[in-house]
């Protein structure tokens, strides 16, 4: 089986294939009517991808001309652009794309791709933010960053020395409010 066969089999699990002309005769392969008034049964001879353009043609003469082109050489580049550039063809292609990707492994892959792209965008934003210029710190901020730990340790040593000396001299910290400072023993 080819990849296309696998995709088709996978899409069939989500529902039946979309119709070229929803609700039309022959299982949706022919329109119920044409814009030009051309008999829809005449479109059966044309390749399927030519039928939407012929059905949308506004006049019988234009529809007959497109039908003749479709029967002569539908694969010619100009003819292909004419046939596939219609609203009917685009609508059918959109319905097929939705059918193939809806609920299939392709939709799971799209979700994984979306998560990957989101993560990649977040990493790029983080790199951009990290590379952004930072404001120059003030002298006080620089001093605090460099000496904060040393100042804190120095204060702890000073406090422990003061406490130790007062205890040796018979003084202690008075926890009672309003009496302040040290009290003799």
Overview of this protein structure:
The protein is built from eight helices and two strands. It is mainly α and 185 residues long. It folds into two domains: 3-101, no CATH class; 139-184, no CATH class. Strands 1-2 form a two-stranded antiparallel ribbon.
Which helices and strands appear, and what pairs or packs with what?
Elements: H1 3-12, H2 25-28, H3 51-56, H4 60-72, H5 77-84, H6 87-101, H7 105-131, H8 139-168, E1 171-173, E2 182-184
Antiparallel strand pairs: 1-2
Number of domains: 2
Largest sheet: 2 strands, antiparallel
Integer average pLDDT: 79
Low-confidence stretches: none
Oligomerization: single chain
Biggest sheet, spatial arrangement of strands: 1-2
For the CA atoms, what is the radius of gyration?
Answer: 41 Å
Q: Give the fraction of residues assigned to helices.
A: 55-70%
How much strand content do the residues show?
under 5%
Order of helices and strands: HHHHHHHHEE
Q: How many β-strand stretches? A: 2
Q: Number of helical segments?
A: 8
Overall shape: rod-shaped
Give the distance, in angstroms, between the N- and C-terminal Cα atoms: 100 Å
Secondary-structure-based class equals mainly alpha
